[in-house]
C-alpha cells in the first residue's frame, strides 16, 4: 500500500532490524488504534505522529552527532597546521609524532574524529527499521491487515481467483517473492502495492462479490486519504498532491542550509564549495524520490525533514549558548 513496489509484507525477522521494527510497529499500531477509538482512521495522522515520536527518541543521538561535527570543524585550522608541519616527512617516526599531536589535540578539545560517525552508524539500523514498518503497513497495523483479510475472504471462493491473482503477481514490476496463492500474507503482499487504479480493476474483475469488497476497498481508500491526497498513489502533480514534492524541496533546502551554515565557518574554500553544491542537489534528489513513490513516503519525508529543521535550529542555538 505504501512506499514503493518493494514487496515484503511479512514482518522482518532479520537479526537487528527485525526486533527494532517490531517495537516501531507496535508504536505505529498503538497510534492508529488510539485515533481509531475516537473515530479517526487516518494513516496520514499515524505517519506524522509516528515520525515525530521516533525522531524524539533519536534526538540524543542527533545532538551528539551535531556537537561532534561542530567540535571537529572548530579544530580544523589546528589540524591542518599539524598536517602541514609533517607534510614532507613520510618516515615512520615523523608520522607517529603527527598522530600523537593530533590525538593530543582531540583530547584537549574533547572531540573524536569518529564522534560524528558513531551516532550515524547507530541511527542506520533504526532508520532501516523505520522504513521496514512504513513500507509494510499491513504487517504492523493489525486493523488494516484485518481489512485486507476480509477482502481476500470475500474473493477467495470466486472461480478463477487463483489464476487471476497469480497473473497479477506475474505482471507486477516487482513480483512477490515466493508467492503462494494459499498464503494470505503473500496475497496481502501483492494487494498492499495496489494504487487506486489497480483497486478499480480488481473490484471490476470481482464484480460478482462487488457488494462485499467495494465497502472494504472504500474503507482502505478513506484511511489512505489525507488532506485530499491519496497516500497510496504517487503525488498527482496536477492537484493538491503537488504540495508534497514542493514542500519537501523547500524544507530540505532549509535543512541543508541550516546544517551547513553551522559547519562552514572553519572550512576551506573547497569544502565550502562542496557543501554549497550539496545544498542545492539534495532537495533535487529528494524530489526525485518523492514524485516517483507513493505520497505516503513523501508525507513521512516531509514530517521528518520539518522535525530535523526545528531540531537543527534548536541544537545550533544551544551550542552557541555553550560557547558563551
From TrEMBL:
Main location: membrane
Signal peptide positions on this chain: none
Spans through the membrane: 12-35, 42-63, 146-165, 237-256, 277-302
Family according to the record: Belongs to the OXA1/ALB3/YidC family.
Annotated organism of origin: Vallitalea guaymasensis
Single Gene Ontology BP annotation: protein transport
Lineage: Bacteria, Bacillati, Bacillota, Clostridia, Lachnospirales
GO molecular function, one term: membrane insertase activity
Keyword Transport appears in the UniProt entry: yes
Name of this protein: YidC/Oxa1 family membrane protein insertase
Entry-linked InterPro entries: YidC/ALB3/OXA1/COX18, YidC/Oxa/ALB_C, YidC_ALB_C
Keywords per UniProt: Cell membrane, Chaperone, Membrane, Protein transport, Transmembrane, Transmembrane helix, Transport
